Amino acid sequence: MGLKELVEISNYYGADEEIVLAGGGNTSFKDDEFLYIKASGTTLATITQDGFVKMNRSRLAKMWEVKYSDDTKTREDQVLVDLMDSREATELAKRPSVETTLHNLFSQAYVVHTHPALVNGLTCSNEGEKYARKIFGDDIIWIPATMPGYVLSKDVKNKIAEYEGKTGKIANLLLLENHGIFVAGNTLDEIKEIMYDVMNKLKANITEVPDFSTAINNEQYEAIAEQISNAIGVDAKEVIYVNNAEIAKLTKDEQAFGAVNYAFTPDHMVYYKHTPLFVKTGDNIAEQVEKYKAKFGFLPKAVAVQGVGMFACGPDNKQAGIVRLLLLDAVKISVFSKSFGGGKYMPNWLVDFINNWEVEAYRKSISEK
Description:
Blueprint: H1 3-14, E1 26-30, E2 34-38, E3 52-56, H2 57-62, H3 72-85, H4 100-105, E4 110-114, H5 117-123, H6 128-136, E5 141-143, H7 150-167, E6 173-176, E7 180-185, H8 188-205, H9 221-232, E8 238-242, H10 245-250, H11 254-257, H12 266-272, E9 277-279, H13 285-296, E10 302-305, E11 309-314, H14 317-336, H15 348-355, H16 358-367
Parallel strand pairs: 5-6, 9-10
Antiparallel strand pairs: 1-2, 1-4, 2-3, 4-7, 6-7, 8-11, 10-11
């Protein structure tokens, strides 16, 4: 039991696109003294032992004794300093996941945190908590949309204590609204058993699945992709056309596109910001790109064109490909959420925070290398 097994479970889920996309998710292993957690910017599918950061658990625990600032930015800066100071001396070249303190709260040896579209169909829905309790009973802890980082960890700390005091059970399953799932276990088999059970129960409660069966090519897509590339510039050297039966329904008009025109999770924000650009029939693409930039202060990474489909943009094929994956993820979440009262986007205050959060900016910068 240890790092070898941590690599195994990380690669196992990292290779499964139903569970992990791009650089999303994180995993950890702990003993009495140390916690080993995925370093920011690494990818679960290919991570090796060198991709984990060795953290001192005693120093991590002492962070709960600190009175941090009430000012949001100052607090997060202070927390980041203490988190980095909790690394062992051999690990100073690596940056631990911002969710390290959360992982350390679980008593189990292994923790796996992922963002499956099927799970987020529930967590990103209007009646997610109601259905979660109906499906899983008291086997879960539900965490409402919360500021990431220290505030989230503190909320989880309180909820775990409350849950364990009330049920007499050791917490091993968290569902985070507009975020994802945490699973904890003392063996890899425990982790797999819990995750398998969650996914199967959700599949049994899904009433509609996305129709990606038919690829649709609009005759205008190549010319439109070129227009998008020219309008955006270096950030859209590569433009990938994305269309299928589900996307065709969503791009029918602006009203239909409302089902996916805002971020469901932080991953969507990291890879294509909080909202795609929607271009109506007859609109000039270059003009719409300029209006988008003037409104938000950055260029779009995802563009939807009425009656044509969606376009994923990036400075290279890798980055454009990741945007494509996350666009399709958003479409899946939108469809799955129909089974649980319909889609629920991240609240505006959380979008504003993440748009300006140094931690996610760092994760994005690493993903682009």
